[in-house]
Design a protein that fits this description.
Keywords: Membrane, Transmembrane, Transmembrane helix. It comes from Gibberella moniliformis (strain M3125 / FGSC 7600) (Maize ear and stalk rot fungus). This is Transcription factor domain-containing protein. This protein has one domain. Helix 3 packs antiparallel against helix 4. With 157 residues, it is mostly helical. The radius of gyration is 16 Å and the shape is globular. A two-stranded antiparallel sheet has the order 1-2. The protein has 6 helices and 2 strands; from the N terminus they run H-H-H-H-H-E-E-H. A hairpin with a 6-residue loop joins strand 1 and strand 2. It is 57% helix and 4% strand.
Length: 157
């Protein structure tokens, strides 16, 4: 996560630190694969996959994403409701993005995810407001819809 946050720091303030942080996180994941079966482990791997999607190393992003998809289905997160559902839909969004970027088939099937994107909480994370709180935009819901469209485009191409 530190590597991701450094992307917003002005250039040359911390040269090379993002590679150091992500290398450390990947080494941790490699040493502690058993811990990935818990919620925080899933979040770590999804974060690393997101980081690699911003680099030219899309194969590593796909590998980290595949590691994340395994516990999603094994622990049946795709059948649960609540906060865990967000992680499933984040994995789904990454899945569709990677498919379009790499040309490889996606791993997750939308019809296997019990709670729909519409079941996501309306308030809280993923909702943007204007400066007067008069208008809100549920970015997370719309992003899941876009991912569904991305999957349909991939199927047609």
């Amino acid at each position: 996560m530190l590597a991701l946050s450094l992307r917003t720091v002005p250039k040359n303030d911390y040269p090379g630190d993002d590679e150091k942080f992500i290398s450390s996180a990947c080494a941790y994941v490699d040493r502690h694969l058993y811990i990935l079966s818990i919620d925080i482990g899933l979040q770590i791997v999804l974060g690393i996959a997101l980081y690699f999607m911003t680099t030219s190393n899309l194969q590593r992003a796909g590998f980290m994403h595949a590691i994340a998809v395994n516990p999603v289905y094994r622990l049946e997160y795709h059948k649960l409701f609540g906060e865990t559902v967000k992680h499933v839909w984040i994995a789904y969004i990454i899945d569709r993005d990677l498919s379009l970027l790499t040309g490889e088939p996606y791993l997750m099937q939308e019809n296997y995810i019990d709670p729909s994107a519409e079941d996501l909480a309306e308030e809280g994370e993923g909702t943007l407001y204007d400066y007067k709180d008069e208008c809100r935009f549920e970015i997370f819901r719309f992003r899941t819809r876009l991912a569904t469209i991305q999957g349909k485009i991939f199927d047609l191409v």
